[in-house]
Amino acid sequence: MTQPLPLLERAAAVIPNGMYGHQNVVLLPEGMPQFFDRAEGATLWDDQGRSYLDYMCGYGPNLFGYGHKEIDDAYVARMRAGDTMTGPAPVMVELAEAMTAQVSHADWAMFCKNGTDATTMAMMIARRHTGRKTIVLAAGAYHGAAPWCTPLKGGTTPEDRANQIHYIYNDAESLEEAVRKAGSDLAAIFASPIKHDTFVDQELPDPEYARRARELCDEHGALLIVDDVRAGFRIARDCSWASVGVQPDLSSWGKAIANGHPISALLGADKARMAAATIYVTGSYWFSAAPMAAAITTLRLIRETDYLERTIALGDRLRAGLDAVATRHGFGLRQTGPSQLPLIMFHEDEGFGTGYAFCSGLLQRGVYFHPWHNMFISNAMTEADIDLTLQAADDTLRDVRAGPKPGPVEKLQILAQLAAE
Amino acid sequence: MTQPLPLLERAAAVIPNGMYGHQNVVLLPEGMPQFFDRAEGATLWDDQGRSYLDYMCGYGPNLFGYGHKEIDDAYVARMRAGDTMTGPAPVMVELAEAMTAQVSHADWAMFCKNGTDATTMAMMIARRHTGRKTIVLAAGAYHGAAPWCTPLKGGTTPEDRANQIHYIYNDAESLEEAVRKAGSDLAAIFASPIKHDTFVDQELPDPEYARRARELCDEHGALLIVDDVRAGFRIARDCSWASVGVQPDLSSWGKAIANGHPISALLGADKARMAAATIYVTGSYWFSAAPMAAAITTLRLIRETDYLERTIALGDRLRAGLDAVATRHGFGLRQTGPSQLPLIMFHEDEGFGTGYAFCSGLLQRGVYFHPWHNMFISNAMTEADIDLTLQAADDTLRDVRAGPKPGPVEKLQILAQLAAE
Q1: Mean pLDDT of B146-170
Q2: Is the CB of A255 less than 8 angstroms away from the CB of B284?
Q3: Average pLDDT in chain B
Q4: CA distance B329 to B319
Q5: CA-closest candidate to residue B170, choices B221, B219, B241
Q6: ipTM of the complex
Q7: Cα Rg for chain B, rounded, in angstroms?
Q8: Cβ contact (<8 Å) for B279 and A152?
Q9: N or C: lower Cβ tally within 10 Å for chain B?
Q10: Which residues of B touch A268 (CB under 8 A)?
Q11: Which residues of A touch B82 (CB under 8 A)?
């Protein structure tokens, strides 16, 4: 009798490289599971039945816990009544009303599927609004995976990135220099709400830089775009830049807005309404009703629960605890960004060896950490989960300290190669 | 006491133009409902509670009927177990195996959300595979709504459409001329499986043209891409060009593959696997498990039921019946394309006045037709539904014949203006 092939071999046969995109584990530490069978609250089970306390939250969507009954019930009820139809359901208007009521700069909403859809629409609307072409973006910032913005250039052309000028995040002077270079052709300034690039420390936005971005757009008649796909509703119950008192003209959303159900959104101010009304963008499932019903329930939980204060408190507890654990074992941690969006790396660990060893050790102890992408605290987590994590970190760092000093991670060179092309 | 605002006014306040994209009814005949509350089988109910026999099928996704219990149950069961997680579920591999088993040219699969995601990935993979930039496409064909392909150019730049050369669908000579122009830079030929452009008659593929496309790609080392997003599994239980004996290298899918649940796909031959493995494309919900479970059930129904023969027979019955009705009232119909993907227009109706009057009259009689976009027969329809439609058409055409001759539809000039920009 022949044995069934292992899942990874089957995947390698019918999916290029076995997997693609941000959920490909090829660049992650040894032992990170590629497939998960089940999810509940803050816990994932892989296809071998092993469970993990999950700090990635699906790379962002899980805000209120996997399988949240109230949100999922709203999805199912609307799906059973009618989901992808020949026109949208009234719930689309209700959701647009809820989003514009929630986000102070927003007068209108458009819904789509990918975060990339929303950032691409933002770019098109800015170009339509101004009649100009040049967009100014922070170097290294992630705004999606279409040819104009995907972080690796394979399969793209120089023309896909024509009309782009880069600046350094949080550096008002470099932003001014980029705007000067754009001259009379400035259509928009893109900004992430925080610097949440992979592989490097996160940075909170410097209020002076954020205000300067607003002023420069106003001076030049360009649009200010905040890409809140990843961090939206995790920093504020409003656009994340409400935290520094700056209102963009457009903001892109996704991930947490429906707790994992497939929907993204572009929100805009009245100023950009006419431009938004005269571009043609659409998708087969952009008008589907069920994810909109889930988003309305999620927004109600955002308004009515203390999820934000809770996730911040849990993140603070994790950060303080990890610092103490690391110090005890003689490691220096670089914990950056808002504590509810933690990025945790090690001092003097350019080759990520210690970070990978740390994640591998945590994984063996049932905790899923990421070595170079910001993580996410879910409202389904508890103080006991954090304490369990700290215990696992304590045990892991003791092992790492006792073992041979980890060398640089060779598989990251693959990425460096691809990025350099 | 103030009355609640009507839904359309509320929509106009919080959505640019009140609606956007292909489900915006602004260019459709008077009285076409913008919002639907409920869907079941082949029937839609608008937000006023009026019901319609729906020939648009959500613009394609509804193949086995709205609210198909078996498919939707598969979705819900997988959703409750875990949907958008930190990695895909094993069901992703099962679906890739099912799709590659079903579609004869396909050795691998990648899943995404929008049809546009799949066509964009196809373009990137062809460029990566060949190291060239030029893609050759049929003029007027719809391949999505990203800046490189959206049918209206507002918000796009000339650079977005650099490296594109157009040919005339079904015209082998014009295809050869386009390939000649591409010279040594030909990356891919795009082809719709049938000509299903809006506003003009549909055309089945001329086998000679399809074979020539294949030969030209082989001669030049370029990739042949069939965009089966709209027509996939409605013409064959394989890629639609299996019907003319031509195998593409890449094919894009969406719409019917999960009967309305949000998923699209790119399928490819081994030849293109390495290129597919070295582009970076992704999306927040591309790895979500629930739509994949729904797609697996849909694929089983595609294999095991006579849906294809049934929808063709129903389409044939509609086509023959409508011809007889039209002739009886002195109208000449242009019924083009496969009968299960009917496009129905009138002879001597350049201004679409008769077509709009026909659709309005059908709508009043509970039948939803589209005047200039191909329609879809769903397997949830019955012969009785077709006969009801023919009776409604008979009554409508008697009225149209008796009334004043309809003039050109002025609102279509808006579109002509936008398209010309």
Answers
A1: 98
A2: yes
A3: 97
A4: 16
A5: B241
A6: 0.98
A7: 22
A8: yes
A9: N
A10: 16
A11: 36-40, 44-45, 66-67
